[in-house]
């Protein structure tokens, strides 16, 4: 049984692995930080949020200060999908954002019959959610 | 074994009376101020609840109470003088006699639901039995000091006891964001506040109306303490009459349904909401969810402030841990009292996680909040809190960022899977003498134009609503200009590329350019951050919002240009700053914490509203949606290609689907090439301490017990790391003093060079 945990990751309760919902690649053990199984890139934020006003003339330009802010881009080693981004000051350890109690998750879903649903909002349910890409 | 000594009620009363009389100062009471939960049943409630009740009948009572609150809300919105009243920055409330807030109005600022009980509990604890004060039918109390409750000091409340057949049966209150409160700067949210005494009026709860009679002596004192004496009086009446109306509705309702049904309905509302909140928490997977986010300024200078958040779910309990947050600064305005910081969290819950639940205090009964006393989210009573919204908006932002991660798997949803809403205060505060000769001090409603976060199934809405009030309004600019002596020369124009990119992009923010006209004295202030480090992140691979600068065009009168050479003017922030069309003007950009600054006629100040966070991988964005944004002027061709990797004809906007698919496949490949496996990456990336060039405050990494801070002493700045309780008091030097010192050093060096050259 695969439980969708984010837009791009689910936890496979049978193998106890984080898996990519786009390419099925195993990412990391479900009891660990999924980020440990990702590829990471230290992105200069001015490449994404480009200066909109003349950076030679002005101190503040709509672009983040790259000496204060970096964007860590975590992508899937299988398909290159961007699983998560994290805005951090340079050198700050990445955050273990999802620490899931896998036993409790298993217990929660133990009685579930039929396909695992995916609800994105109060009136928004996606029935065939896997491999939508 | 311990012996338990029984104290008789009479003895206890004597002891209490002695202690009360011997207390020199009734400051904020930690026993009240640290308790965000509703009280357990009283014996009388216990007895009433044991009887049989018809749930439908009780629900009808509940709806009647809320409709009375909505009526009061409408009254205040229609008759209130403060701009905040017109835009929905207000609420009305009904409490139990014990001071548990049970309901607030449907519209308005939801976060009030978690902070209005504190002043009522203070009145119950200290004034009700005090012969010099007392609580009687016809009395009304006024309050604004956030250290005694409510969100921040610009919000003033009127609190009325409701008696039924001589029994204190409930409390009602009305609250409006009044703006002006006599603080150091006009408008009530002073970003340059350097001590709690710069924060303006600090009204602990006191009686302003006694048995139906307004105390003119106290009113006069209050009017003398603020810049807008007429506003102070007018809105006091507005709030009082609206509260009076709620009281009439409550008494009429009790006449109809009976005292007992009324009391049981209040109690049931509290208990049902808690039970439902617990049921919903149980459905969230057990575990710990974390985010580390950062503010980039104190409003006076750029420093980095950490706001960590770890939410742990165990069964039906939720623990929200903010330990590791930046320490309080004793001469900066961004600190938020613990109760205020919790209201940011509550706003996240009421607005985004469970927007359908009735809004009362007991929603938080299942939640524990952990802080370090002495941090900026749990400061001491001496800390200034004039612009506490800085920290309150962050406590909102960090919990809202986690909700979609916590609930993604839940089959039952109450809100949406949504990226962070924009959550900074991008607007102008203003003050001075208007075209009618009146002194004004307040804030532009553009605060309410925040961009919404992208959802898992659609783009965020541009300039949608403030995260704290879904039904707030922006006002009509032309009508506003009848009262204020400045024009918005650029108004509500979506700023191109001010976009949080993603599979679904965030709702975008607009440009605002203001210039004063026809006034003997006028000035502006800004009280925001996020010009070096983006104010909100993205979600599930989406990006955050861009940073936003304050721009000034000074030394010129734009109205003269508009009259004489109108062709020079551009309704475009970016082009005005890049093309510099006014020959003699001085152009500059700044961070968003501009203390009140006098503006000459026709000098321009420009900012932008921010955008909500983006959702998902940019390479999954529908190419048609990308070019639709280009066509609408929301996105530049350059960014459509650079970020979204869409290949299209920039003239016809026709997308080349095949080339786009190929470009995106290439980019996915390029990501894998340039990225490194996590373990290898962090070995290089992680440092033992913050970068040397960044004045950094808060924990570094997961160890939230060690707080980093740059402390200014006689010998200048020194960085240290220590447990919060061991940090020395933090006071930052005046940035202008630092500028003077820097310039003086440069001058001396230049002089020395000149003299050296002369030898
Ligand atoms: Zn994949
Ligand atoms: Zn307010």
From TrEMBL, chain A:
Protein name: Putative acetone carboxylase gamma subunit
InterPro entries according to UniProt: Aceto_COase_bsu/gsu (IPR016750)
Domain of life: Bacteria
TrEMBL record, chain B:
InterPro entries referenced in this protein's UniProt entry, alphabetically: Hydantoinase_B
Domain Hydantoinase B/oxoprolinase: 58-617
MF terms (GO), sorted A to Z: catalytic activity
Source lineage: Bacteria, Bacillati, Actinomycetota, Actinomycetes, Micrococcales
Protein name (database record): Putative 5-oxoprolinase
Organism in which the protein naturally occurs: Nostocoides japonicum T1-X7
A Pfam family assignment: Hydantoinase_B
């Amino acid at each position: 049984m695969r439980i969708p945990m984010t837009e791009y990751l689910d936890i496979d309760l049978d193998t106890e692995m984080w898996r990519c919902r786009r390419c099925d690649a195993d990412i990391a053990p479900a009891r660990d930080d999924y980020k440990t199984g990702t590829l990471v890139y230290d992105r200069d934020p001015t490449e994404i949020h480009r200066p909109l006003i003349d950076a030679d003339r002005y101190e503040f330009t709509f672009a983040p200060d790259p000496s204060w802010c970096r964007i860590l881009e975590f992508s899937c080693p299988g398909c290159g999908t961007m699983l998560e981004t994290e805005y951090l000051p340079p050198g700050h350890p990445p955050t273990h954002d999802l620490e899931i109690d896998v036993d409790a998750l298993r217990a929660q879903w133990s009685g579930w019959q039929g396909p695992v649903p995916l609800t994105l909002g109060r009136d928004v349910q996606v029935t065939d959610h896997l491999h939508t890409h | 074994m311990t012996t338990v000594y029984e104290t008789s009620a009479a003895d206890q009363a004597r002891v209490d009376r002695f202690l009360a009389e011997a207390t020199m100062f009734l400051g904020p009471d930690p026993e009240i101020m640290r308790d965000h939960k509703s009280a357990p049943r009283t014996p009388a409630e216990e007895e009433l609840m044991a009887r049989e009740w018809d749930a439908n009948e009780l629900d009808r009572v509940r709806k009647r109470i809320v409709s009375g609150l909505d009526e009061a809300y409408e009254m205040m919105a229609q008759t209130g003088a403060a701009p905040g009243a017109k835009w929905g920055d207000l609420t009305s409330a009904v409490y139990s006699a014990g001071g548990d807030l049970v309901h607030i109005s449907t519209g308005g600022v939801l976060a009030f639901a978690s902070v209005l009980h504190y002043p009522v509990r203070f009145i119950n604890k200290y004034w009700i039995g005090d012969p010099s004060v007392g609580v009687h039918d016809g009395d009304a109390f006024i309050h604004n000091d956030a250290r005694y409750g409510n969100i921040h000091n610009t919000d003033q409340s009127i609190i009325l006891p409701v008696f039924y057949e001589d029994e204190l049966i409930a409390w009602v209150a009305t609250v409006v964001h009044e703006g002006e409160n006599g603080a150091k700067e006009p408008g009530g949210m002073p970003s340059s506040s350097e001590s709690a005494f710069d924060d303006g009026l600090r009204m602990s709860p006191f009686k302003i109306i006694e048995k139906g009679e307004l105390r003119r002596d106290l009113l006069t004192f209050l009017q003398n303490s603020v810049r807008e004496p007429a506003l102070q009086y007018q809105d006091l009446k507005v709030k009082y009459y609206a509260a009076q109306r709620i009281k009439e509705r409550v008494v009429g309702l009790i006449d109809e349904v009976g005292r007992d049904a009324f009391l049981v309905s209040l109690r049931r509302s509290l208990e049902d909401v808690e039970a439902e909140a617990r049921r919903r928490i149980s459905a969230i997977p057990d575990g710990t969810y974390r985010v580390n986010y950062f503010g980039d300024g104190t409003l006076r200078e750029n420093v980095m402030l950490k706001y960590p958040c770890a939410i742990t779910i165990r069964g039906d309990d939720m623990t929200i841990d903010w330990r590791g947050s930046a320490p309080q600064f004793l001469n900066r305005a961004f600190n938020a009292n613990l109760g205020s910081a919790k209201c940011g969290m509550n706003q996240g819950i009421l607005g985004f996680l469970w927007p359908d639940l009735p809004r009362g205090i007991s929603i938080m009964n299942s939640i524990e909040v952990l802080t370090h006393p002495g941090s900026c989210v749990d400061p001491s009573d001496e800390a200034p809190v004039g612009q506490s919204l800085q920290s309150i908006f962050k406590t909102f932002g960090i919990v809202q960022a986690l909700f979609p991660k916590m609930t993604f798997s839940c089959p039952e949803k109450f809100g949406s899977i949504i990226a962070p809403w924009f959550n900074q205060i991008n607007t102008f505060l203003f003050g001075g003498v208007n075209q009618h000769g009146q002194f004004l001090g307040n804030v532009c409603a553009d605060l309410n134009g925040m961009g919404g976060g992208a959802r898992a199934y659609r783009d965020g809405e541009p300039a949608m609503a403030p995260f704290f009030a879904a039904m707030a309004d922006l006002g009509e600019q032309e009508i506003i200009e009848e009262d204020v002596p400045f024009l918005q020369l650029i108004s509500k124009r979506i700023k191109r590329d001010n976009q949080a990119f993603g599979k679904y992009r965030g709702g975008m923010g607009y440009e605002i350019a203001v210039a004063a006209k026809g006034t003997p004295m006028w000035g502006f202030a800004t009280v925001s951050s996020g010009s070096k480090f983006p104010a909100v992140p993205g979600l599930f691979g989406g990006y955050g919002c861009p940073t936003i600068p304050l721009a000034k065009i000074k030394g010129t009168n734009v109205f003269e240009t508009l009259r004489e050479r109108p062709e020079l003017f551009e309704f475009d922030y970016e082009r005005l700053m890049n093309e510099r069309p006014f020959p003699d003007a001085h152009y500059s950009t700044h961070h968003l914490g501009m203390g009140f600054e006098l503006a000459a006629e026709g000098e321009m100040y420009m900012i932008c509203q921010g955008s909500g966070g983006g959702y998902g991988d940019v390479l999954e964005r529908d190419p048609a949606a990308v070019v639709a944004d280009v066509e609408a002027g929301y996105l530049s061709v350059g960014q459509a290609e650079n970020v979204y990797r869409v290949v299209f004809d920039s003239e016809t906007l026709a997308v080349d689907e095949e080339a786009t698919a190929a470009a995106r496949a290439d980019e996915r490949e390029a990501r894998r090439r340039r990225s490194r496996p996590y373990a290898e990456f962090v070995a290089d990336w992680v440092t033992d301490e913050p970068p040397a060039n960044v004045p950094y405050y808060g924990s570094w990494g997961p160890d939230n017990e060690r707080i980093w801070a740059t402390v200014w002493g006689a010998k200048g700045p020194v960085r240290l790391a220590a447990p919060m309780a061991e940090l020395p008091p933090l006071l930052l030097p005046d940035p202008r003093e630092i500028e003077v010192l820097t310039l003086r050093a440069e001058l001396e060096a230049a002089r020395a060079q000149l003299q050296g050259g002369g030898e």
